[in-house]
């Protein structure tokens, strides 16, 4: 894989049969390559005209959370059936905003069932 000098194009040479783990590795490499390209990924899931951009959607993804005691950041891992595992390090302000959002959406009459999400 080679990125052009202006970072707007990439040259790929792939002409072989790949296993599932090899595809996962290729997806990660392509994502790393894409992160170096311009234009950058849109900051919202809409283009400049307000239209939706292509996304992958999956109901009820598997997730795991890592929260080391010595670090204020929490890492959330989401498993996509097509992309594999992605990790997101969340700043405490983002954690609070997400907690407020999800708490505001909980039904008021149903008791909360405390079920921890294990880190795998």
TrEMBL record:
It comes from the Bacteria. Residues 38-59 are annotated as: Disordered. This is Transcriptional regulator. It comes from Acidovorax facilis. The lineage of its organism: Bacteria, Pseudomonadati, Pseudomonadota, Betaproteobacteria, Burkholderiales.
